[in-house]
Amino acid sequence: MMANSGALALIAWLLPIFSFLVLAIVFPFRRLGRPAAWFSTLCAAGAFASAVLAWRIQSVAAHPVHLVWPWLPTAGKTIADVGVLVDAQSTIMLCLVSLVAFLVQFYSVGYLHDEPAPALGRYYAYQSLFAFSMMGLALAPNLLQLFMCWELVGLCSYLLIGFWYQRPSAARAAVKAFWITKAGDVGMLVGIVMLYRLAGTFDITELHSMAASNALPLAGLSIITFCLYLGAMGKSAQFPFHVWLPDAMEGPTPVSALIHAATMVTAGVYLLVRTDWLFALTPNVLLIVAWIGAFTALLAAVLACVQDDIKRVLAYSTVSQLGYMMTAIGAGVASAGFLHLLTHGLFKALLFLGAGAVIHAVGSNDLPNMGGLARRMPQTALVFIIGTLSLAGIPIFGGYVSKEEILGAVWGAHLTGPFLLLMLVAGLTAFYMFRVVFLAFFGTPARVAAVAHAGAGHTTPPRVAHAALHNEAVVEGAHVNETPHAHEPPATMLLPLWVLAVGTMVVGVMSTFHLGGFAAAEAAGETAPGWLTPTAVGVALAGIALAWATYQMRAVNPESLANAFGPIRSAALRKFWIDDIFEGIYSFVLLGFSRIVGWIDRYLVDGVLNLLSDWTVQAGDELRGIQTGKPQDYVYGIGAGVLVLILLMRLVF
Amino acid sequence: MNGIPLLSIMTWAPFVSAIIIMFCARHRPLLVRLTALAGASVSLVASLIVYVAYDKTMAGFQFHEQLALVPSLGINYLLAIDGMSALLALLTSIIIFAGVFASWTVKERGQEFYALLLLLVTGVYGVFVSLDLFVFFLFYEIAVLPMYLLIGIWGSSGFVKPQGIFGKAMGRTGVGTKEYAAMKLTLYLLFGSAFILVGILALYAEAGSHSFSIIALQQVQFDPTVQKWVFLAFYIGFGILAGIWPLHTWSPDGHASAPTAVSMLHAGVLMKLGAYGVVRLGMGMLPDGMAYWAFLVGTIACINIVYGALSAMAQTDLKYVIAYSSVSHMGVVMLGAATMNVVGLNGAVFQMFAHGIMTGLFFALVGLVYEKAHSRAIFSMGGFGTMMPGIATAFTIAGLSSLGLPATAGFIAEFMTFLGAWSSAHPWWLFPGVIGAFLTAVYVLRVTKQIFWSTQSPDPHFAHLPDAQGPEWAALGILTATLVIFGVAPWIAVGTIDTATTPLIATLPKVAGASLGLLR
Questions:
Q1: CB-based contact (8 Å) between B518 and chain A?
Q2: pTM of the model
Q3: Which of A400, A490, B77, B94 has a Cα-to-Cα distance from B42 of 20 to 30 A?
Q4: Domain ranges of chain B
């Protein structure tokens, strides 16, 4: 039975790489497009099935399963393995990853059905590689494998953000995402290397037992955990490294759902959850984690309030929720962060896929171009609202319990500052999400008349790939589809939405009423003060009410609401200049410095060399004059030389 | 396998095919290419057999061949390989095999081109397999000299326009032309050879045993002062070829001007001769010298890494970018060697292999892009990914290996080097290393995005460009596959390297401040 869960996890992990290899190597098959897509989806389904089985077995098993093969030998011994570490944590992560991966691949068949066949095949090759890498990350038995998969998911993110690379914004966003996460990854690599010198192993189990038995020297450990946290900051979009995530929305929407909401961006949180016993040894770093997490949550929530692009609202919301998870870890209750990771994975994937259905129908990302969609696409509206309520933390919905646990944990750790920030964020979250709901699904399209002029606005470049769907006008001009033509998406897209909605509800109901596995978790968890839950829910309801009053009833004029926060709003519209700072670092510091070094190389290092060689040639030219060819001159020369020698002998000796 | 002189076959097969090309295949272009391919194939098969048949449990030097040349002076034709040279011989085989395909379209004086190329390769093999310093030096010169003709005749001139305070001198020396590049490269390397020759003769005289054998000289305990100065001579001499700062400037000009296959060989393999020389001759025979100069070697390597990467970022000519990236990556090799522990040295040797394949692939691709688009100016090109997906994909993979992405050979090499650096006596070497890795990500992806994965350039010259064709696919396929295979399954190389590096490191003196006894 024990070996089974290992084998099942291994199967779940290897099925996507099998799919990737087939698609990568058998390129005529890949170029067929749809068959390749279904093949990849089938492999993902298989992976999900074995992941669930592995989880069922492992959730009742007493010991984790450790299956490894030697990978990197040095000095006659193995310094690193590859394999799987199957325990309750990794299998549940595996389930989440494979479920969302499968649903997203299924959904993409409908979403990308107008994509040319070779491009579709390429998309699914990347998707398979991503699923493999992310599962390898979840199952990693050592930090080296974790890091390698970490980099590979970064690669897949780069490839998929830049999937429509002919669009300059997509090409730029892909590179930006890679660079900024790479900056964090460099820190993480340093941390792993330093940890190896300290502990002599990469193996998570061994490190854990060393930490448990106080065998790890504490000197320098803070630097190591901070370096690891740097990697997590890059991947999980913590301030100031959050700037890449909103831009990553240039990728296809299903990619945003999978990579930039449910799985890859949570890798940083997962890393900290996996090594929480290591971070527990360095409370000073945990404090940094908590404060940066809470600050990130607030910053992103404020930014989300001023976005008009539905995907960007969701992206900032993801950043904000990642901040939530990080704060929980910083408070020392990694399990709360992990629970929120799981529930967030479900409902945020739901929200993104729902947004994808909306974009698919409307042909635009811009909220002002939407409105009244609830009548046109009631099912989408319903599941989207389920996701929104979950995100807002309303009881019986998915995100409620995990959010309460985080707030309780942060309060329990006496982190009053972060706690207040998170409370504020809870209200903002409800506000900006219901702003989206009211603007997109209720009311009337605000800018239908103005659309013809605004379609080519800079905020939303014409979505070439989406535009082809359903409306010729979108392709030919920069016009945006009028919402009356919008309709429900095809079944391939609706089905994943319902699966995720039901999943969110099941988790929500079970956790709210402490059913199933949540009963034990609740009993073990520390008790939060009684006022906490009503307050948090009240704050969320207040946010909803404000959004309702502003965007539905129009009782509050949105303009005057905006003006009330004038300076903050205008700063938020400029993204608090953080993107500009990164841009400046790139253009002026990096490129400027490189130009200086390039100049030094060409004109100083090489210049000295050229000067020497030029002098040599010049000197040769000059000295050539001595060789006159006249015997008299040579005799004079010899005579002079002899004279000098004699004089020297006389004087020196 | 006993009785078959595999190493000699491997070494001389290219030479024989060069002779055949010159005397039997004149003016028959296809025959020239097939003969060259045959020669390269024989070497490839021989080196594969040697690599696979190398007995890892026995370790040490294997496949001995000996023939007395000048007994009175103790000069022997003595060949053998260990784990390190077996891998590097395999690297040479892969690069020349791919290089023959990559230069399939050379039109002008095809037979001379191939003959010189193969002659050069014989020299390279010879350096890797000889254990006699005299023969070693002979082969070394054979490997260096044909380059002058190869660049001077078949090369291409760059777009460098000298300006500023040194502009006048640079203009007079002819910066940017292929003749200048060929002359600069040759003079620079011969300048280095002089140091090597002095070093070799000093060791021969000092040992007084009338033997040029590396194995014999390794047994001799040289006086520390001698070690110190001879190591410095070797470091400068071989270091020039390995592109150490500030003696690297022959490399960008040379590599940018050289024809495709020559750039592949030179950056891919010849620069490794330099690093190999430092490790085999410097570290192997002069352990105290190594320990004395380790700080200098490692620090200059760090300068190489960061300085090379920043210089690469500043370039606008695609070939110069790749050439400067070699300067940066060779810094990783030298850094690994300077760590003086097994994991670092393994990283160095692995980086020699990884960088060889990677840069060979890069130069092959740059050659292909130039052949099709007739441009090397990065910022005039754009959006080639749609038209040449094969080339674009291979370029991206090479770039990813270059920035040290896991599942490519580059990661394994850099990771082991960094691990070694942090465990060495000077842990701070780690930081320039990782900064270099980040800078590489910046310039490689910037270039990749600009040329391949962006909007189509409006220039009508770039409207219809073909992808790689026929034999070119072979070159790209072999090199790309090698990069990925060695990245996914590093043990097939590291296990072999380890048999050579572990005993080598064991001879070095212990250094204060270094950690991890288990890595020594």
A1: yes
A2: 0.91
A3: B77
A4: 6-154+173-519
